[in-house]
Amino acid sequence: MKTTYLTWIFAICLAFTGRDISAQNTYCNPMNLDYGFTPIPNFSEAGRHRATADPVISYFKNKYYLFSTNQWGYWWSKDMLNWNFVSRRFLQPYHKVYDELCAPATFVMGDSLYVIGSTYAKDFTLWSSHSPETDTWKESVHAFKAGAWDPAFFLDDDGRLYLYHGSSNFYPMYGQEIDRKTLQPIGERMDLIRLNDELHGWERFGEYQDNTFLKPFMEGAWMNKYKGKYYLQYGAPGTEFSAYGDGVYISDKPMGPFTYQSHNPFSFKPGGFTRGAGHGATFEGQFGNWWHVSTITIAVKNSFERRLGLWPSAFDQDGVLYTETAYGDYPYRMPKSKFDKPVDLFTGWMLLNYNKPVNVSSSLAGYGANYAVDEQMKTYWSAKSSKKGEFIQSDLGEVSTVKAIQINYADQDVDSSFLGKIPGIYHQYQVFGSKDGKSWQLIIDKSKNKKDVPHDYVELAKPVEVRYIKLVNVHMAAGKFAISGLRVFGKGHGELAREVKDFVVLRGEHDKRSAWLKWRHDPLATGYVIYSGIAPDKLYTSIQVFGANEYYFKSMDKDKTYYFQIEAFNENGIGKRGVILKSE
């Protein structure tokens, strides 16, 4: 009787939710958060859109707390897979600004979590809470006198508290000590570090790092301590660009002098679906694992249209800080213990539908169907309406093993009233799979969902063997049914891409910061990943390239020797890496 009853309950749950009922063990960038819409009207004249950036995550009392720009609240999680939003306004009534907790800073001291936003004024409140999973904040300092933009706090082992800040293409990054008792600044701020784009290629301004019309920006301070060394981090050269990354200087003292780390930028992702990995925060979480949370650029409706990404990180045996971004927007495992190397978290599940044939219910002019499968978050397909039944169907080309699906919604014709955090909105949809395009099975059912899931990622409870995937709209949270990425992950059953031939690195005498990388195209390859680094065992920089057999790499230091390696990949897996090339 008991077995029959449990079976009956299971059947009801399956009918209600489809196959999507198991605990999720993997994640996929961009982070699937209920992002608010930009609250700034003149930032959204090209269309109302979601936007956030400048994230920080604090691990406090066995929970993760995530704050970012202009969200009118924050998120907390026990596992970094499921996030809970807490609505909260931190500015005082007399603060007449659109920004609500812009580029926030947090730190843990004693049994409290502290938070403050960016300001050049000296009247922002520093808040604290013993239990921030609910809105239980109190004023610790009514008016913080530092006046810091892009602030970051650091509490040292000896109990001394420091503030780091700066956001400018002229002024340096600053540091200042904070009195632990009064929580006010002590003495004068100190100049700490500046950009040097004449030496560091990645710090050059512009989408193509060409410094055409502005000098680069240094922003997004962050500090960590590891084995007695201080790691002062910063974002550059501009949040609008694919090459937005984070660099780091190292010192024996919290206020310097600082030395540029040999591997930089340590957080960098200029290619693939999610681009940019700058202005972030590095933190130690559960099991002693290190992570980096950062800004991802879209910059279509406004230069500050952005999302968030989460990347596993580590310090190597020589104390070099690095972040794993290779296949960084493919599914990664969320660890249940201490990981050895960040790359160990990659599932090996490959993208199955890059630039494959697409069939749709309708298309809005200028937003064609294949924009949903071109691996660019800047482009998207839009149906003509938000009506129930609008659909997009993706042909994988052959029957494949599907293990996970990511649905990235775009903002098209969103209601003009959508400024800031909009409560009560939600997405509803169904996903069907088929081997022949005629007989369909329901594999994900979110027709009863009541959550806002703009970048929904679903790891299937059980893999399915299908050739076609059809996403059918039931209800849109905002605007028309528009998709920037219908991304299907798993494994194909064909041949791997081969080892890449004729890979060359042409580093010009005119500018040692740049190189032209070329290789022979493999017809079996979907794309390529180029690895670069300061030593053969430190190839920590990665660039994912689709649809080309060349890449202009402009992110080197002028005075360093670099090493390069390349691999091809396709739906079936990753091919053998080629030989390591040295470039002086």
Automatic annotation (TrEMBL):
UniProt-recorded name of the protein: Family 43 glycosylhydrolase
Keyword tags: Glycosidase, Hydrolase
Domain F5/8 type C: 338-491
Organism: Aquirufa aurantiipilula
Key word Ion transport present: no
InterPro entries linked to this entry: FA58C, FN3_sf, Galactose-bd-like_sf, Glyco_hydro_43, Glyco_hydro_beta-prop_sf, Glycosyl_Hydrlase_43, Ig-like_fold
The keyword Cell inner membrane is annotated on this UniProt entry: no
Family indicated by similarity: Belongs to the glycosyl hydrolase 43 family.
